[in-house]
Amino acid sequence: MDLEMFHKAVFVIMFVIFVISNYVIVYKFIQISKIKKEINRSSEKEAYKLITKLKDSMWILDFGITSGPLLGLLGSILALIESFANLAERGISNPVVISKSIGFALVATAFGICLALWDLVFYKMLNDMIRNIREEAKLIFAGGN
């Protein structure tokens, strides 16, 4: 069974999630800056509608946080299975080959963890910004300016 193709597919999937996550991050920063300006000019109902829109697509970052390590682990497992199958065919005589195979397999786990950490940092940051905007809107509409 050629698991190398599946291992590469896991990397492609993680890369696609990374690209989509970065798009969401940039989009959210732009959206937040626009909404901050619009809150002062809008009615209370419109302001809360705008703030609610900020939560849209945050699930994509949450998905990256959750799926990154799992996909990385899957990639590592597939690479290890492929490596051990190749070693079994050739015989286990060279520890350098084993070390390279295991090192290559762990790259997928590292990439998955990096993806999750990247998404987590921005997920927390954006959630804090959204919470601050919500609190600011409460003060504005309560008359506390």
Structure description:
The protein has 145 residues and is mainly alpha-helical. It has one domain. It has 4 helices and no strands. The chain has helices at residues 4-39, 44-54, 58-90, 95-142. α1 (4-39) runs antiparallel to α2, α2 packs antiparallel against α4 (95-142) and α3 (58-90) runs antiparallel to α4. It is rod-shaped and about 75 Å long. It starts with a helix and ends with a helix. The mean pLDDT is 89.
Fill in the keyword field for this structure:
145 residues, mainly alpha, 4 helices, 0% strand
- Count of individual domains: 1
Number of strands: 0
Number of helices: 4
Strand content: under 5%
Which shape, going by the Cα principal axes?
A: rod-shaped
Helix content: over 70%
**Which residues sit in consecutive blocks of at least 5 with pLDDT less than 50?**
none
**Which structural class fits the helix and strand makeup?**
mainly alpha
The average pLDDT is: 89
Q: What pattern of helices and strands is seen along the backbone?
A: HHHH
* Biggest sheet details: none
Through-space gap between termini:
66 Å
Radius of gyration using CA atoms only: 22 Å
Summarize, please:
With 145 residues, the chain is mainly α. 88% of the residues lie in helices and 0% in strands.
